[in-house]
Specification:
single chain, 470 residues, mainly beta, 6-stranded antiparallel sheet, 31 strands, 0% helix, 46% strand, globular
Amino acid sequence: MRCIGLRGGWAALFILAACDGGTELPPARVEAPAPPSVDDTPSSQQEPPPVVSPPLPAARCMPRPAEPAPLFTNERGQPRSWVPVGPALDANPERNTPQSRLGLAVEPTGAPVVSWGEYNGAVWGYFFRRAEGNAWSQAAASVFPLPAATFSMPTRPAFTVDSQGRPVMVLSEATGLYTGTIRVRRWDGQSWEILGLGLQAAHNRLTRVTSAALAFNCSGEPVVAWGESGPGEPSVGIHVSQWNGTSWQRMGERLGAYPDGVLGDGSNADRPSLAVDSRGFPIVAWDESAMREFIDRVHVRQWDGGQWLPVGGGVASEDLPSKGNSYLPSLVLDGADVPYLTWTQWDSRGEGAQVVNQVRRFSGDQWAGSLAPGPRSEPVLAALGSRVFVLFAREEQLEVHTWDGQAWRPVGGRLQALPGATKLGEWALAVDPRGLPVVAWIEYTRNPIPSGSGGGGDEGETQVHVWRFQ
């Protein structure tokens, strides 16, 4: 199994339907969940406390990917290139409908599946399309979690497909002006099944949740990481739960570099990125800022079956020359379970500030740089077996590079769908079963926000584009 990368979130491509057994570990220490917060919701409406997960098996339970296809030439020896997967996508026939909240996955058959959100001034909805040759079909029914006028715009969901090709979406849903819960939906071919109750560690309607990440365990069931701040908690922490087929199981304690805040100031842990290794052990990266320090850093923890352990000291961006914010981490594992990590770095040195990033590979007991810092915007990673790819934007065009064991090599040319000067919205990266990259992005001409809606720009066309390297 390997995983696909999403800016703000990613998930696994292949999962074994059941673990292949192996030697069992002795019982490991498992933290008991904290008691639920006091709530004035009637007891019949309160969610039960979470079940704590037992230790996961240590034997390898993920299938090894097949030998990949040649990357730079096809089976006939001809050079590969980037080609569109069908026409550009939009759900609303009206021009100038803003699109965002992009997601991308690849089915086990190799068919790309894309999801995105559109807002038409009255309703915010999510739409899903599957590639069938050079055309698109509806992969699942549209999701309209809330009227646009209710509360606030939803955060970007985590989206992928499971080993059976079923779309799975993790979405934060508002329960109040600043509060919410995490819902996991899985398409069963006819409708969206909601897996269990909303994910909340505090089990309180006054809880605030942030973005989420999605992967799969050895049984092919979802594993979710999300940010949460319950009533009375001084900081936002990261929580991880896995679905056991009937209910959600907590995996260890709340994660945070500053669990009690800094001198009572609190902290914010957000934007988790999640992977699961070949033994079924999750590894999670997130960015976190302590209020008094006013700086974001990237932290990484690995589950060992009973507790979360720091990876490489736990702070992956501490030794950079720039002491600016580090945020939006993207984490994947290669076929040997070696972690690769990238993030966006704000470099405020010198006269002009700029956004840079690099890619790091965990080697031995530390994070080693494999791609030197450069002016690249919001990178994401994807991997299948020994192949690791990074996607980033530079000068309003997208680039894909791959790691050859010694250096990062460009994969094809830069990506731009529309002629002339255009702007990029969001982007996402996946790898198909042959080990070839697939990219989705939102691109628009001029400003996609009408001047009458407060955006102050000219009307322009905005669409979702999906291209693959073949």
